[in-house]
Specification:
Pept_tRNA_hydro_CS; Peptidyl-tRNA hydrolase; Pept_tRNA_hydro_sf; cytoplasm; about 190 residues; 6 helices; about 20% strand; Rossmann fold
Length: about 190
Amino acid sequence: MADTWLIVGLGNPGPRYELTRHNVGQLVVDELAGRRSESFKAHKANARVVETWLRPGGPKLILAKPNTFMNVSGGPVAGLAKFYGIDADHVVVVHDELDIPFDTIKLKVGGGHGGHNGVRDVAKALDTPEFPRVRVGIGRPPGRQDAADWVLDPFGATERKNLPILVGDAADAVEQLVAEGLLATQQKHHAPRV
C-alpha cells in the first residue's frame, strides 16, 4: 500500500525500561496513538501495533512497538513491513540519539547507525539502511558514566520537566514527515529554537 507508513518506536520491553532514555522512541509512538485515542494490540510479528490514520482519509499509519529488546528490533520491524507490504522508504524509525543534545530532534534517511544497535539491527533485517529516522536527542552522559548505563537510566528530574515537550515535538516531526516529506520537516525541526 503506497500511502501506508510504519512508524516504529524503538525501546526495551517491560516496566523496568518504560521511562528510560533508550525508550524515548516508544514514548513518541505512545504520544501518536494517544492523539488518536487508540490502544496498542498484540501482533503476530512480535510487536504491539495501532492501525490508524494521519488524518481521516489517509495516509494510513501503523504505529508499532517491538516486544523484543532494543538490540534485536529488526525481526519485528521487518515482519511488520512484510505483513503490511511497506517498503523501507515508508518505515520511520524513532529512536534515542546520544550524539544529539537533549531536547533536540534531527531527521535523516539512510547513513550509518552511529553505534545504535537497534538501528543497526533494523537496517540488517530490512536489508537496507535507507529508511527515515527521527532521532530524539538524549545527550551524552556526564563525566565518565558509561553510555550503555546512561541510556538505561530514567530521565533526570530536569529532563522529565521538558520530556513531554520533546516527545510532542518528535511526534509532530513524524506527522510532518509523513504529510510533507523529509526536507520540509528538517527545515522546521533542525532550525535553532527561538
